[in-house]
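Blackboard transcription, Thursday session:
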Amino acid sequence: MSTSAPTDIARAVADVALWYHTIDLPDGSATPGWFDLRRVVGLMLLPDVRGKRCLDVGTYDGFLAFELERRGAREVVATDLSDHEDWDWPARMRERGAAGLAQLAGRKGHGFEVARTLLGSSVQKLELSAYDLSPEVVGSFDVVVCGSLLLHLRDPVRALEAIRSVCDGCFVSAEAVELALSLRHPRLPVSRLIADPTLCQWWLPNVSAHRQMLLTAGFGVQRATRPYAIPFGVAHPPVTRHRILRRLAAGGQGVPHAAVLAHPDL
Ligand SMILES: C[S@@+](CC[C@H](N)C(=O)[O-])C[C@H]1O[C@@H](n2cnc3c(N)ncnc32)[C@H](O)[C@@H]1O
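(Written on the board underneath:)
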């Protein structure tokens, strides 16, 4: 536990330009995140992690990594990229996108470090692309989690194969899904190419395609959720468009996701 006075905590939190995650802090406050996973983490099919070696891929401010630690994991490693330039930007946005994001989000990884200190956490952070995960580099893990990352990758199945190479036990993939395509094609795997050259976003799968990507990468699927919405946090810019279908189908306002519990056996 941190011994910081509440004012120190508030100051440390305010020093982070943009909080992606809403994270509970020891003084009863929480980071002002864009997203609030606290309200849906119970739906995400996280297995019992007590005594296990765990990996969180693409951790951002570290909500999932800290949650694994809080639930009793023996060791938690979290990976991310510290430079916005290393993201899979579309060609025309390679320079402009990274600069824009850096301006909005500030120093990448600062939020993780602040939260780690305030929580007195032992999570170890590694700068590593999901594509570069290998047993030689990070060893192997009993439990691997990866949330809201595949959408940002040009080659999500390649990343899933790399994740599989370091997963000895089970893998939780909790990803953004395309709701309309999930309702229209419950069994047909379909992905929408987002094709917005201003965003670092590529493929948005329906629920079936998310599952199929895991199977294609060599995972066996044990359980899967229905779509649920990751709620916006207090700092998220107001969402002006009415998305009634989205809200009804995902059970609330936010970004539709689905989770799959998989294992590396073919
Ligand atoms: C939308 S955030 C998701 C954060 C968190 N995993 C969650 O579930 O809320 C995506 C994260 O993936 C990271 N990222 C982007 N490309 C990556 C890559 N190739 N390898 C690892 N992480 C990556 C970003 O830096 C960012 O922290």
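Lecturer's comment: The domain at 6-263 is CATH 3.40.50.150 (Rossmann fold).
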